[in-house]
Amino acid sequence: LTLPDEAEQILSTVLAIVFSLAIAWMAYALVDVVEVVLKKFADRTPSKLDDMLVPMVRASLRVTVVVLTIVQVATIISQKPVTSIIAGLGVGGLAIGLAAQDMIKNFFGSMMIFSDRPFDLGDRIVVDGFDGPVEAVGFRSTRIRTLDGHVVTIPNGELANKAIQNISKRPNIKRAFQIGLTYDTTPDQIQQAIEIVQDVLADHEGMRADMPPRVYFTEFQDSALALQVIYWYHPADYWAYVEFSQRVNLEILSRFNAAGLEFAFPTQTVHLTGSAGASAADANGNE
Are residues 50 and 70 in the same domain? Predict the structure, then answer.
């Protein structure tokens, strides 16, 4: 059977396209195998960020397969060299790139986040005043669930250039506060107050030997004699820290009351002198 040259060319083109599509389908399916391998590798690492990287790699590979398939099919149909097709795509890609600068910036921002790993999924971070755990990291943006329950989406291009405070990575929680005593407190009572606080915090829950609590008489304030108290709680379990701090506060309050030590609060003393004071005294006497 002899086919006309035109029909033979069409049949040859169709067969070439079908063959290219078959190869592309196989490559597209093999992406799932790569995904399974990457998932097994990610499961062996402690970082949760790897689990988010796997679907992003899968999507990138599939997009690459589709783009290469389109280039191949275009080459077969146009019967032009691949270099000519790529050059044409380059001109179009330049126009698309100019229109999608933010998207490209966010993509490279996400790559920087995955390489530097300033946080993991679930870590509580603070960025631009937004405080909360990281819910998701994508090619374009990162989502944070604030402590108020709101979802904040930050483009990765911006996030990669910002100062990120990772609260979940802190080894401990530091508490620094002052206790104010009244100005009629004697030096012996100040020393007694320091010893009470030191005793309350001695070998306290969550203390490390190399980070003992600190208690000092530091300031003469406007209305109080100030004791500075600092201690560190390990590990950085916030609710355990709050519960422990409550017990510390109650114990200090109880022992200060038992010792007769008075807490100071802002007060003002007004002295009346001269004629104003005499007039006030006469008025009180006439009453």
Answer: yes
What is the reported pTM? 0.62
Residues near 68 by Cβ (< 8 Å), separated by ≥ 6? 24
Tokens of residue 270, six digits = 């007004």
- Same domain assignment for residues 137 and 58: no
Q: What is the pLDDT of residue 84?
A: 63
User: Is residue 148 a part of any domain in this protein?
Assistant: yes
Same domain, 162 and 179: no
Quick check: 207 pLDDT over 90? yes
Cβ-contact 173, 241 below 8 angstroms? yes
CATH number of the domain that residue 85 is part of: 1.10.287
Kindly report the backbone phi and psi dihedral angles of residue 269, in degrees, each rounded to the nearest multiple of 5, phi listed first: -110, 125
Query: Is residue 44 a contact partner of residue 100, using CB atoms and an 8 Å limit?
Result: no
In a domain, 53, yes or no: yes
Surface-to-core class of residue 215, CB atoms within 10 Å of its CB (0-12 exposed, 13-18 middle, 19+ buried):
buried
SS3 127: strand
58-70 pLDDT per residue, tens? 877 888 888 888 8
